[in-house]
Amino acid sequence: MPDDGRQFGGPRHVAIIMDGNGRWAESRGRPRLFGHHAGARRVREVVQACPDLGVEYLTIFAFSTENWKRTQKEVAGLMSLFRSYIRKEAKDLRDHNVRVRFIGDRPGLDIKLQNLMDELEEMTAECDGTNLTIAINYGGRDEVARATKRLARDVAEGRLDPEAIDVETLPRYLDTRVLPDPDLVIRTSGEARISNFLLWQSAYAEYEFIDTLWPDFTHEIFADLVASYAGRDRRFGGVKA
Ligand code: FPP
Fold it and tell me: Is residue 67 annotated as a catalytic residue, yes or no?
């Protein structure tokens, strides 16, 4: 049971797999990157809707550890989009009191993007409104593997007693260590899979798989999903009180 008294209220943490940009563009006879640009524009609307919906944490999947398999042109276009998104949105995010964090394997990204990510995190570090987490070069299995490496190092160097390891231990090594677990995971575009997103953290999340393609996602759709979550009965493996 969550201890924040919200089990009959709205989700505190919503995570979104923003899928369908490519199909959205292709259906208009446009290149896939056109869809990614349209998708990036939806992010602002969703972030700004969070305070009114009571969503304190929003985590969005922007680029997975598997997305490197796309064409070089698409990957380069996405990296350039992330850089321009950060440059263009930084001030607006801070003005809206949004604290931005990034999760994923940062050293695998180009240094210019890494620097922009660091700067945006620093620039919004004092913001105490919506917590926006952007997953770039993120994979749930990769995150658990990296966390395990750090945990093993702590054991090897005598800082952690292996007998003391329990389900509370690993989350302290994950990229998401300062975030609560997601309550609601949304995936757009009609695919019903989680694609390596927040594997450990979503053990008890509620899921919404909707047909809308990400560039067509609106704050009204977001509000409906948040409202329908509030009607769900989450038991966390127990029985109804
Ligand atoms: C999946 O759609 C989407 C991505 C791999 C990229 C997500 C990026 C954005 C929404 C824009 C940028 C975000 C930020 C934070 C600036 P897809 O390409 O797999 O679509 P498809 O399944 O229709 O091909």
Answer: yes
